[in-house]
Design goal:
heterodimer; A: about 350 residues; alpha+beta; 3-stranded antiparallel beta sheet; 10 strands; globular; B: about 210 residues; alpha/beta; 5-stranded mixed beta sheet; 4 helices; about 25% strand
Chain lengths: ~350, ~210
Amino acid sequence: MSITFNSETFRDDFTYYNSPEAIQRFPFPFDEDTYMYAVNMEQHNPGERGSVLEHPIDVDEHYVAEMEDRAMVLAEDPKRTQTLPHMETAAWDTLELLFGLMARDYPEHFTLERDGTTWHWINRPLGLDHTFTFGDSSTLPPRPGSRGDVPMEPLEYVTRQVQGDYAVLDQRADNLWMDAGTVTSQADWSLDFDIGMDFYEWHGPVPLAHEMGIFDRALKYLLSIEQHNPGRRLNWTMTINPRLDTSPENYNTWGVDRTTVTPENVGEKVHLRVELQTFFRLPRSNALLFPIRCYLISLNDLVTVPGWGKRLHRVLRDLHPDLAEYKGLTTYLPTVIEWLSAYDDESETVDQAG
Amino acid sequence: MQQKITSPPAEIQSRPKYHELAAVPSAQWNLVIAEGEGMLSVLRMLNEAPKGFSARTHVVYLTSNEGDDQDYVGQLEEFGPISVNQALTRKEALHRLSKLLETAKMGTRLYAVGGETFLGLVIREALNYGINHESVITELRGSLARRVQCVHCKFIAEGVTTSFYDCPRCGETLEVRDHHSRRLAAFQGVSATVETPGETPEVEEVYP
């Protein structure tokens, strides 16, 4: 099935929108009326046809616009993509995995022909047709905007063509190390600051979960992920306006948006932001690829799906204040809860199987 | 390492943890770098160390400006270390360290004691030589003053002792977090006034 790609923006005039189909397939993350951290990991098995879980890497109507937004972020701030020298093999592993999956699952949009180490990649939505030598960075296309046509590093090359942020984690000494990544649509964390940190360190700012033992168990699970058996979990926060680049670097640009929410504009401005986090073991490097795919939905669209407005109302109403603070919701949360209460008839809800 | 902890409580786990210096008897060679009064910890360690330890030890010593430390070197020499390298500036001390790391042999153990910024810079230097940061024995003794990176414009300010400060490059009023990067040897500063325009945060001296 061929995807029709939206023409839309994630900044300035914010023309981002979800089609009715995109609303129906939105990965609503709450299967209970309350939310607390949990080690909510499961095998990344194929989900229902048409759902965001149908394929290991989901390509949707926002693909082209998201890639345009990434290109803008990288032009402003090239350090949003970095690869420490020992991660080059893992970067090629990443390219092989992502291009391979995209060509397999979306053949009408992407084609990968491999002849030994000579690879021919066609990306129709972005209008790219490249031939390069696998493992030889000097054969990759130049970095856009670079002087002297410096070739792109493999991680930058591939992640400019796949939705979601990418952290590439080295595994050593029973820990995971954030040693490479491309991060342009993040929920307020900085790759440039966190690169080189271990699993506990980059999660340092997260409240409560350390004490609950969440990270010990999550790390154990991640260290044991095997090739061909990827894992996944959902995470969530909220974002004002459909902005992908909510980075700490630009917090002084977007943070003020949190003060602009009113009872009149809440349905349009406030978005639930869901991250589909997946984990893939990479074959040559034994590194772990950690794609963080972001889905945004306005509250206006969210409440069109029966049951979602009611459930979100209960989750937010009873949210632990430390979580609200960490997720940056405190300023506008009362306005959101009040608005959502109109969708909650106070009746019992039936928990979906988790 | 089951040594006494010397780090103050931290809100965020990326903040390095420090312990009291203690000789690792199995180390074939030892490289000790100390700032100011940290030298007292070095002298204590050498005093408690097994016989022969000092004779396998190089020391780099960054003198403090306080003027009360003249006799440290004399006391140190009584233990008979391989070398004592006295430096007057932080830059010089790190340069001496770098030279020693360049020619360090297998089985060398690195020890550092001093203020928090000094320890961060030593660890960063060690990383440049492929030393695992977890193998370095660090004791916090001295100032808590921080190197802080403005996450917005990336400027690194030295000697920040307050909970908030104005970035000297971009002017943003930043809150100093406990989030710490080894590679930058810096804590993180994030704009403190974005969501509360017009309000001025109360600046406290928290990293003396």
